[in-house]
Write a structure and sequence with these properties.
12 strands; five-stranded mixed sheet; 428 residues; alpha+beta; Nucleotidyltransferase, domain 5; four-stranded antiparallel sheet
Amino acid sequence: MIGPLLTRAFTSHGELAEAIRALARQKHLPPGASATRFYSETTLERWYYRFKRAGLSGLVPKRRSDMGHARELTDAQRELLCAVRREHPSTSAALILRTLELDGRLAKGAVSLSTLNRLFRSEGLDRVTLRVADGRVRLRWQADRVDALWHADVCHGPAMKIGGRSVPLRIHAILDDHSRYIVAIVATTTEREVEMLSLLVKAMRSTGRRPEALYLDNGSTYTGEVLATVCSRLSVGLLHATPHDPQARGKMERFWRTLREGCLDHVGTPASLHDVQVRLLAFLAKHYHCAPHASLMGKSPAEVYESAPRYDEKVDDEALREALTVHGKRRVRRDGTLEIGGTTFETRTGFLAGRVVVVARTLLDVTADPWIEHEGQRYVLGRVDAEENARRKTQGPCANRPRRGLDVAFDPPGALLDALVGRDGGER
C-alpha cells in the first residue's frame, strides 16, 4: 500500500501529505484478502514512518504483553469497578462509568468505556458470562421491521402534590421493538385498562398504523376482556410476558431506566400532570428519539422508525370507532337512571324504566356519552346534573296546580256567615 510513497523523493513542504491524501482516496487489496478496502491517512502515514525507521520489521504487528487485559487502571480503580459490577450485575458498563464520574469517585475521562469493558471481560464480569453463570442464557432478539411488535408498560413516577394531598404518578408508554421508538406516552394518576386502551388509540392515530402484535405484562391493566376484544377486532396479536421474569421485558425496562435518569429523577414534586407531560415530550424529542442507540448500530430511534417502509394498511378513525365500541347490559332504575363506569346517566324515555337494556359506548373518545340500543333503536343517554335534577323534582308535574287552602279559598263556615249577614266573601 505504501510502495508509491517509498519510491518517491519528497523535496517540498506538503508534498508527502498530499501524496498520502491521494493514496487514502484509493482502494487497496490487502494480502490474502478477497475484497478491496480504503486505508486512512493516519494509518498510511504511520506505516510510512515505521518503514523509514525500521524497514520491513517495523511493519510487523507486535503482540501486546497485556493482550486481553485492561490497561491504564490503578489497583484502586480496578477494585472499585469490579466491586460495583458484582453488586449490580445487570447495570451496563456505560451507566457504571457515568455514575462513578458524577459521584466524584472517578475523575472524568480517567477510564474509557473500552477499557472498562475489557476489564469486565478479563474478570468474567461481562453480561454474557454473568448470565451463563446464573443459569440463564438470553439471546438478543429484535423484530425485523417497524410496527411488527409494540411493547406497552407502566412506570411509577414521583408523587405529586395537588390540593395539599399526595397523588400517585403513573407513566404509560408504548415502544416499537424494531426501532426503540416511543410511539405514545402519557402521564396519568391511575393504571387501569382504560388508560391502556386510550394510549393504544393515541399511538395508532398518531402513526396511522397498527402493530401486528402487542407485548404486555400480566398485570390487571393488560389482561382485561375489553382489551382482548379490541385487539381481536383490529387483528392485533396479544402476547403476555412470563410472570416474575423482568428480563423478558428488557427493552421496556431499559427505556424506563433511561427515562428515570434523564427526566423523572429531575422533576422534583410535579404540580400537575400537564407539567409532567410537557417534560416527557421534551425529553423524547430533544434526547431519546434523536440520540444514537447502541442496539441500532449508532442510529437514533427516530431515524430508524421514520425512515422504515410500512407494509400494512393505514388505520382510519372509522375502523377504530367500530373496534372500540363495547356493549354491556344494565338495568334502568325506576327514575330512568343507570350507573356506567362510576358515572350516573339518565334516559328521558320513560318506557325503559325498570328494563334490562344493552348499553353501548365508544372508547375512542372517553368524553363521549354512552347510548342504549333497544329493539333496533338507539336512545341517547345524558349525564345526570344533580342540581338540575333536584330542581326538577321540586318543580314536578304538579307544580302548576293550585295548592289547597292557599290559592283557592275554601271556608264553609265563613260562607254561611257571609250569606247570613249579606257580606261578599271577598270583603273578609
